Predict the structure.
Amino acid sequence: MESSDALRAHIALYAKNFKLSWIELGQGLYGVWRDKLYLGWGFEKFEDYVIRELGLKKPLALKLVKTYFFVEQDEPVYLKKEFAKERETVHVPGVEGLDVLRLARTKKELTRDDYTKLRKDIFEKGKEASVVRKDLTAIIKERKKVNPEEEREARHEQSVRRLMSALRVFKKDMDTLKLADPKILNDAEELLQRLQKQYSNDPQSH
């Protein structure tokens, strides 16, 4: 029977291998997707192949393909055998963490320093992907510039559309129940038409 220390070491190794196990699948799927090999196997679409032959959901398959391509292009060190050997298990990113980095790379709101910090959190601190994803969302929200004038216009337009919706409900209820003076209904209809003309993008105005 192996000692507790040996078992501990083996479990750490199994966990490390588990984190890296997606690589070969991602590499294979990337080749199938890139070269459209699925066509020669009788499938019209990539998703048909992964669903019907592999039993994988399309979002997962595409995540593996995109993440592998990202790693190959931007983080090739991750694919080297020495990478995992030289690191503690907790500091070996899994596919979810790398997918967060992939998404971060596409965000124009992020600076180089922002990305470097996120990468450090994933590669060196071993942060959970869910935590880093929240950090990414917070950074993007902070970086996003809001135009005060546009914000006021948006609030104004929302208020007008709520008024238009209320007028429609009022007209319908009062007309159905015959509770309103015809003149009031006419005034409501006239106001509604004026608002619709001004805000012609309203989907219910057509």
Remarks:
- The first helix runs from residue 4 to 20.
- The chain has three domains: 1-89, 93-145, 148-205.
- The CA atoms of residues 97 and 130 lie 8 Å apart.
